[in-house]
C-alpha cells in the first residue's frame, strides 16, 4: 500500500487560459492505493458526498484503467469540489503517481500528465492538463499539446474560496468564442510577463502578468463580489488578482510581508457581500509526494 499527497492547483492565472498552472502548498488530497483484482473506491473528506464512488464515474477509476492497475483506492478529500482549485485533478494526479509506483509502470512524471488529464475528463468533460500538470510535477507549469514545461517557483499566494459553487462546465459555457487583435496582443504580453516573474521568483511581475480582458471578465459575473474582492486585495498590497481556474476561488500574488493583510482584506470584502469564505495563505509549491503506508 502507498499513500500519495497531491496538492491543489490554480489554473489559468488570468493570462494563461488552459495553459498555465501552479501547485499550491495547501490544501491537498491524500489517497491510499492497494493492489486488488478490481478497482474499488472509497471517498471521504470535504465534499465527499458529491463524489461518485463508481470507478466508471470517478477520475481515479479512469486513471486505474488507463494504467491497467486495479486497486482499492481511498480518497481523503482536502480540496473542495467545484472550488477552482483543481479538486478532480488532485485526485487524478495522486492516483496516477501512486499506481505508477505501486505497479512499477516506470513512467516519468511528464508521461503521467496526459493519463491524469484523461482521468479528469470523466468529471470535467475535457482532458485539460493545466491542473493535473502542476499537481504531478509541482511549481509553475506550461501545458501544451506536445508536452509540459515546468519552472520551479516559490511565489507567495493568497487563495480565497467563497461559499459559492461554480461548476467547470458552467464556467466554460461563458468563455467568449472570439477576441480582438488588441486583446490577443495584451494577453501575449501579460502571459510573457507572468512567465518571466515565475522564473525570477518576482511576485510583482507575476501580478502584472495576471491581467486578462477576455475570459476573466466573463467568468467574474459568476462570482458575486468579485470586483470588490479584487479592489480590496490590491489596496492591501496584492501585486495582482484573478480567478483561480473556473472559480469561485479568487487568487492573489503578493509578497510574504503583505500576505496576511491581503487575505484579511479579501475575506472582509466577501463578508461585506454576505458571503462566507476561507483563505489559504500559501505559495507555489511541490507536486505529488509518495509515502510508504
Automatic annotation (TrEMBL):
Domain GHMP kinase N-terminal: 60-139
Compartments in which it is found: Cytoplasm
Keyword annotations: Amino-acid biosynthesis, ATP-binding, Cytoplasm, Kinase, Nucleotide-binding, Threonine biosynthesis, Transferase
Listed EC numbers: 2.7.1.39
Gene3D superfamilies listed in its UniProt record: 3.30.230.10, GHMP kinase, C-terminal domain
Family membership: Belongs to the GHMP kinase family. Homoserine kinase subfamily.
Protein name: Homoserine kinase
